[in-house]
Structure formats: C-alpha cells, structure tokens
Design a protein that fits this description.
The protein folds into two domains: 3-139, 3-Layer(aba) Sandwich (Rossmann fold), CATH 3.40.50.2300; 151-245, Winged helix-like DNA-binding domain superfamily/Winged helix DNA-binding domain (Arc Repressor Mutant, subunit A), CATH 1.10.10.10. Helix content is 36%, strand content 20%. The protein contains eight helices and 13 strands. The strands form three sheets. The chain has a six-stranded mixed sheet with strand order 1-3-2-4-5-6, sandwiched between helices.
Length: 257
Amino acid sequence: MSRILEETPSPSDPGGSGGRQPSILVIEDEPRVRQAVREALAGDANRLLEAGDGAEGLLAAESHRPDLVVLDLGLPDRDGFEVLRALRRWSSVPIIVLTARHADDDKVRLLDAGADDYVTKPFSSAELRARVHAQLRRARMTPLPGGDVPVAVGDLTIDLARRRVTRAGEAVHLTPTEWGLLETLLEHAGRPVTHRQLFSAVWGNASGDAQHYLRVYVAHLRRKLEADPYNPRRILTEPGVGYRLELDEPATPAAPG
C-alpha cells in the first residue's frame, strides 16, 4: 500500500507557493531509490507519499491529488509509460520520470507521452531537487508564461501580447520564425521541448531535417537573447532531445573567502 510520510515544514519555499509546502508522490518499487528521493527532497514537502507499484501509485494520485509526481519507469506490475498515460488522461500534475534508459529516443518518447521532465539514474540529489523546484514553480506561475503579462528574467523582458522583446532596455527585433520558436519555448518554459515538437509548432507539416533547421534558428535566437550565445543560460540544449527555455536566474557564485 502507499504510505504518507509527514515531513517537518522547511523555511524554504521551492515551489514559489507563498509559504505552503507541496505534497509529492513517489512511485518507485526500489526501497533504496525511494530513500534517496526522500533524502533529496527532505524539507521540501509537507507530505511525501510513496507507492511501490503502478496500481498503488495511480490510487494514491487520485486519492491525495499531490502537487508533483516522481515516477519510475521500471515498475513491477505495469510499464511506467502506461502509468504516465493513465495519469495524463485526467491530471495535469507535473510529472518527473526516473529512468535508467539513456537512449535519446526513450527520452523523446517520455516527453511525447506527457512527462514534464526526466532524471536518468544514477542521479544526484542536487539535480533532482533542482528539477522538482523548477516544475513546482512553473505549475504555480500566475499568470502562466505567454499570457497578457510580460515575462521578465534578468535583463530580458518578453511581451508576447505586444510581440515585443527587450534586452537591457533595448528593443530586440525577431523574425517570424524566431518568434515562433520563442513562443513555443515559453509555452513550455522549464521543460524540455523535443525537436519534433518545435519543428511542428513552427513549420507545421513541412518536411526537412528538423535538427538542422532548429540548430540554425536557435543559434540566431541565442545571438539576440543571450549575453554569451556560446555559453547560453536561457535557451539550453537537451542533448539528442531538443531545447529548454530556462526562466530561473542561475545561482551567483559566492565571493571567495
């Protein structure tokens, strides 16, 4: 059966929820992995629910309506993709998949099936926490990126309603194709967007080498939006998968001494 672990509230608020700690459901059959997830997210949730197989996980998701789900693909009773699709039939809860599959095609399948993000095993606690925090922030953004209110991050302001971008107060001219890419990335801000998803959104049913087209136009977009296009901090590459628009400010290194 699934079980609820009551966690001591933490002063941190990773989800941007105004002080309310989120509830997180972990669907994973390996006790050691569940423990690693539990330790990684200690203090980040007021409830951490654990389920040892897909059936228990779906029941816990329906009963407790968590704020985020961490889902393992290798479940004993059913394929993780089946659980993912079942959740997506009725819920828009952020889902981060734990997977031992490193092939690019598998990662693309996960995103196409409805996963918001993925972490490959073995994973670090820092990476898992960062991914969880990003998805919780994204889920609680009001309004959502791409709405009537401009999105500001660092020295960059994106106003889709007025089709206007400024960087350090200076207007940035974007071509229609660059606008299409930016709109799609912003719609999925904080999530990987596959080459196929981007190509379809911008070029429709056109044929061609999606990765080549995207490589060229993403480079153009980076030159206009990034302080250093060769070391991008906003439009990030997901190797073999696609791209991600990152709205969070990167952490500033502490001063020596």
